[in-house]
Task: structure prediction
Amino acid sequence: SLTLVLTACAGMDTKGPWGYPLAERGPVVDDYHGTQVADPYRGLEDPDSETTQAWVQAQMNITNKFLHTSARNKLKERITKLHAVERFGAAREVAGKVYFLHNDGLQNQSVLMAVDADDPKSKPVLVLDPNTFTQDGTAALSAWAVSPDGKLLAYARSEGGSDQRIIKVRDLGRSQDLPETLRHCKFSYMDWKADGSGFFYNRYPDSTGKSTIAQHQHNKVFFHVPGQAQADDRLVFEHSDPDLLWVAQVGDDGRYLVLQGYRGTSPRNRVWLLDLHGEAKAFSIFDTEDASYDYIENIGATFYFQTDKDAPKNRVVAVDLDKPGALREIIGETQDAIESVLMVNHRFVVNRMHHAKSQVSIYNLNGLRIKKVELPGLGSVTGIRGRRSGLRFMFGFESYLQPLMLMRYHFEGDRVEIFRSGPTPLNVDDFVSEQIFIKSKDGTELPVFVLRPRAVPLDGKAPLLLYGYGGFNISLKPHFRMRWLPWLAQGGMLAVANLRGGGEYGEAWHQAGVLGNKQNVFDDFIAVSEGLIKRKYTNKKKLAIIGGSNGGLLTAACMLQRPDLFGAVVSIVPVTDMLRYTEFTVGRFWVSDYGNAKKDPAHFKFLYAYSPLHNVQPGTVYPPLLITTAEGDDRVVPAHAYKFMAEVQQADGGEHPLLLRVESKAGHGHGKPITKQIDEYADLYSFLFQVLDMKF
Result:
């Protein structure tokens, strides 16, 4: 109860000028391959205990007192005004209509709209409004698929930021949902059968009362017929390996169901096929997880894949079912990594990254490059959508200063059109967007995007916010993000670093930042920080670093390794306990990047060497720190933030603010309503403006 929590708060010991509540320390010690490792804050892993809740409440009291100033109120007004512009999201063409996401600016969740594909200027109609799911806007549309005939919509919704989903089916003619609800759909996706009779989806068994590991095992593929109960869904595919997650995709010819199995976040996967017109028995074509094999399309019994097999920057290969072990190269590897490939109009649409910027080209089926698609500028291409026999395809284009535009390419006339676009909240001419290169500790060249106000001189005095991620093969390309605007509007500079561990230069670049190579990522980020200072973009006192999830691990680790280098650190939903992360929810899915300290002595050695929780040094003066987490985060559980903050506050030898922000009815970040985003940004910039002495 609240009374018990407040009573527990009142009895807590405190430390330092900010009165940090000292968490209860326990005698827990774990043995890792002969090394004894203390875990005194194990109790904070229980989010429901009265002790944990009291400690969190005491932390939030300190945080709110520091952040909630009169300047923050003005800042929130400014952020709200900047957000109040029309925005667009993912688009795809189905049955003569283009479906796309739209937000008027301040809607908590973007709505799904549809417009006549041949008359894009006609008035769109509302298809689904996620803002009606709940009163507070905390339920989100997390996936959707329109039936081939355009009559039905299968959609997934999640609540409170959870990865768990339910799937509903909507009759688009009547604008009503059918009665069934499909559950246990964590990380689930849907794809319709060609005749529209139903859709395939993957899900876990009912895991009520089961362990964390058991809750994420035995992912299977089912077929759902609209209108029937989930209990009647037909099991289509299951694999003997319980740890694989399966994604089902129907080829454009409607004959084959392509089943791609993934072990956590590893890009290496398995591929099985099911002939929907033949025997109902699946068979494998890639079943060793020796490389990534991303299905593109098939023509008859010839299947095309994007793969990094013998090509770290990816290539396109063909596989004939009568010779399943033989790969025929269609489009070879080049110096620019292939990010995605789609077959449209019986041609390959290839999206490559040139120093983390998109380039799109069209090839014939023999692998001959036909043309380059002209883009509006240097930026990112996302969401390419089209069909094998189609004459056009949709895609999104954006940059750091250009909000996402929905675009469409027509093969007839080699024409690109802007299908939908919204205004830019800031005057683009007032800013400079540039790419520089900085060498890391070992000489590796690192691309860095920099956005800066044109009127601010390069004299080393400007505040600069440096963002990084460096993991899971994720590429940081130029994307427009509303959250950066308040910073830029106040004269701040923004830098985004492309670090090893990402996917900007292919799988070799990714592998250079995983497992025992993870220290490369931290070295890269530190080198970029030093390089920006050396080039007079900023100075140590004005340099702030920020990252989320794996990027939160990045900022935490760099703060510990170089506490003298930063004026402020923001660590959002961070992974910090690298020895026990596999014990929480889906943590074991990340082993391919991080390793497993419990099972492998070599992994324990390198994880223990950088794990933020285990490398806090008593008496060190740490820079101002803001850690954020959310009660509903079922991906990176709040315990990572709680334990790390308890350790830092206990050990710190300085007087800088070390603040913990905990959000309710939210998760890892996806699907967060605009109202919560604005509050989060207001708190974030209230913190940065104060500790960096920026005026508002």
In short: Residues 2-80+426-691 form a domain with the Rossmann fold fold (CATH 3.40.50.1820). The chain has eleven helices and 40 strands.
